[in-house]
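Hello forum,

I keep getting stuck at the same step: I have a sequence, I want structure tokens, and every attempt I make locally crashes halfway through. Rather than fight my setup again tonight, could one of you with a working pipeline run this one for me? It's a single chain of 207 residues.
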Amino acid sequence: MEPYYAGVVASDGHIEPDNNRSVVASSNHEFITDVVEPVLEEQEIQHSTFWDEGAGVYKVSINNDELWDTLTEKYNIPPGAKAESIEPPEALTDEEELWVVRGWFDGEGWPEEMTKEHEDTEYHYPRVGFKVMSEPIRDWVAEELEERNIRVSTYDRQDGSHGLWINGYEECEKFDKEIGFRHPEQDRKLKELLANRKSRSEARGTG
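Reply #2:
Ran it on my machine without issues. Output:
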């Protein structure tokens, strides 16, 4: 689960430049206790977890020279400010790349329901979004999805952010099976959206 943790640090954490400390931050306590901490415990990595009142988030802090080196060298995560400068890791196995992408989605992805009107009919469909400040990361994640036959559309915004959309029931269902969310809140929401869409289709006799 090392590559998953690397993806979470890359997306929702940071590496301090002047010591051996790496940090993951999240406002969701369940994600910290049920996902992040078990990953670290599986690797027997000592850590401390605390609530940062000023930032309004839970933080998991690790002081570990070996992990610091692995995150910076193997997974290409730059110490310090990284939002725009971070680039994809290289020379990973397919399985490692998959888990890094999963970590990125737990930090920077989300599911939502969209509504579209056509004539007098209102249609609802799920979609998954992903947005970062690094264009190389967005492009790399899009390529990883497309290699798994998950269609995406990409966008670039004037604020410097770069994102992608996974639109519709079929593509979101493939995403859920191939990538998915480990983040409990996002996982529940996506599965609920997919179940609701399937129920509506079956009620119309089309699913």
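The mean pLDDT is 94. If your local run keeps crashing, start a new thread with the error log.
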